[in-house]
Amino acid sequence: MTSQGIEAVFLETRNWGATGRFLRELGFTVDFETDHNSGQFSNGAGPYVFVVEVPPDHEPRTRLVLKVQDTARRPGDGVDIVSEFEQTHYGTQEMTVNDPDGRPWILQAPGKE
C-alpha cells in the first residue's frame, strides 16, 4: 500500500475556542465549523487541520492522516493494523495503524458509493 502523502492533521483539544484563535493567529482560515466544537482549518495548499474538542478527562491527541486510494491493498507485514477500513459518518473510509513506537496513524480513503 502506498500513501499519497499527508492529508490532514487531526488535533484534539480541551478548548475549541482557544485552539481556533491560535490557528487563526498562525495564518489558518476556518473552512467550516460544526455545532459540536469541531471544525477544519487550512493554510495554503498543505494538509488541513481538523480540530475537535474532547472532554476534560480525555488526554488530547494529535494524529496524522495519510491519503490512500485503494482500500483493497493492505499494508505490509511490518505495519501494526489496529482497525480495518471502515466507513465514517463524514463520508470517507479509515484504517488505523500504529507506527513502531505505538503512535496511531490514520489511512483515509474515499468513501464507498
TrEMBL record:
It comes from the Bacteria. InterPro entries: Glyas_Bleomycin-R_OHBP_Dase (IPR029068). This is VOC family protein.
